[in-house]
Design brief:
The protein is built from twelve helices and 16 strands. By secondary structure, it is α+β, with helices and mostly antiparallel strands. Helix 2 (50-61) crosses helix 3 (68-74), helix 7 crosses helix 8 and helix 11 (346-352) packs across helix 12.
Amino acid sequence: MSQVKRLLWILTLVTILILADISKAKGEDLPDAAYVSGVVGHAQGYSISCEARSAADLAEFWGFNVTETAFLQALPSSDNPDQGFVGSPDEVWGQIPPNGYGVHAGPVAETLRSFGLQAEARRNLDWDAMRSEINTGRPVIIWVIGSMWSGTPVDYQAKDGSIARVAAYEHTMLLTGYTTTSVQVIDAGSGQYEYYWLENFLNSWSVLGNMAVFASSTSHQQVKAAPEILGDTYTVQTGDHLMALAREFGVSWQELAAINSISYPYTIYTGQVLRLPEGVTMANVNEPEPEPAPIELASRAKTVKSRLSERFKLHNYIPSNAPASTSMNENPEPIETAIVLNTNSVIGFGRSIGMAWHVLALLNNLSGTDIVHAGQVLRVR
């Protein structure tokens, strides 16, 4: 082989290797779909505490017991969300600083580190970086707008002269999975798994500069191991599905999926053996509950009603145009209402009382972006 041909051959080989590295860097070696199992979500307890809720759920995944309230208390305060939490957790959702807003990735990562978790705030990420995290078994906190809405960023100047990029209806979720066309997330607002088109996610995520918090723990496995199960096992029968079985066992379907390492699309198969949570046995499941006495039923109903009234401040009334009752047994069913304590959006108020906002809007002839005011009475059933 001549010297020229040898040189050309070496250059060709180097080019192939470089192209291979570029392809790998672009994520072409990542699978088309991946999911992190064992992530459990909870609904946020305050109007604009989504970041604390997502952080607490992420910490729980890694084995750290951090409550949402404790995380909020540990966050620094500032009028710049890049430096601390802006406003009060009970303020109206959908505003921008200096009004109640929330907090960005930097202070969240810093606070997670104070609780012992290895956390890093990242910006200007690309999609392959997110896919890589999911493939290594690590859920990611993401900053989006509402329920993957589009939004308009604004440059806000804080009192100290620093500039922060903010947007109305800033919100966080936990990214836990993806396909070529969709993403799986846990919405901090509801604590539930949600699925969105990938295109909508990428658009919403870009509004605040592709911001995220990555986390891991050297003291825990990257993929959370199933806890020791002291309960019984159940063999899946034809016609069974995960949610129905979870209801029968008296547990959440997310818990049942987590301890059996069942990931999206959460399919179970005839003959599959499922491990049950601690304390749950087939004897308990199959044993019919004794029929409660009428006095016990009345007591339960009274207790439930009392708890609802305390939490949601429910009030019963009969509409003024209701037809007069013709007998003692024909009283119209009372309508349940809730009094708004602080000005809020329909979506934010729905979250604060644990109610789906679209149902609240439908019952009151409102839209999700409408504002409700202190003292306003809204129908909730």
